[in-house]
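Lab notebook, bench 4. Still working through the backlog of constructs that have no structural model yet. Next entry is a single chain of 197 residues. Request: give me the C-alpha cells for it.
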Amino acid sequence: MSVNGITGATSAYAATNVPTSTKAAEAAAEKKTAEDKGVVYEPSTNAKDSNSTKVTDYSSIVSKLKQQQASHTQQLQNLVDKLLSKQADKYTSLADMFKNITVDPATAAQAQKDIADDGYWGVEQTSDRLVEMAQALSGGDATKADLMINAIKKGYDQAAKAWGGELPDICQKTVDAATEKLNKWRESLNEAQTVIE
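Model written out:
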C-alpha cells in the first residue's frame, strides 16, 4: 500500500469527524444557553385547560369509597370467621383430648396455657388480634369502630353457623373483649376531640 493511500484514508476520516465535532459543539452551546435561562413558566392560553382536571362527578368517587369500605368490612368478617373457627377447633380438640385421651402432664399444661385468658388462643391475645385487624382495615379511623364491631359480630355468626351451632364460651368472651376494646378506642378519639375543641 502506498503512503498516499494511508494519507487519503486519514484525511477522509478527519473530514468526517469535523462536522460531528462541530455539531457536538453547537449542541453543547445550545444546552449551556438553555441552562443559563433556567425554568421558564409559560401560562396556558386556554381557560378550559385549567378546569379540565377538576372532578365534576363526585358520585362515582363516593361509590368507589363505599365499595372499598364494604370490601374491608367483608375482609374483617372473613378474618373473624377463620380466627374464631380456629379458636373453637383448638378449644374443642383440647376439651375432647382431656375427655378421651390420657395425656402427659407437659402436654396438658401447654394446652391449658394456650387457652388461658392470656394464652395465644385465650381471650386477651385473640381479641387483641381482632382489634388490630379491625383498626388496620379501618385505616386507623376510630369513627369506623361501630362498623368494625358489626363486622366482628357477623364474622362470629358465620363461624357459629359453620361450626354447626353455638361456639364455645371462649369465643363469645373473645368477641365481647374485642367489642369493649374497640369501644374504648372510639371513646378515646371522642375525648381527644373534646379536649381540642
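Notes after review: The CA atoms of residues 72 and 139 lie 10 Å apart. The longest helix spans residues 58-100. Flag for follow-up if needed.
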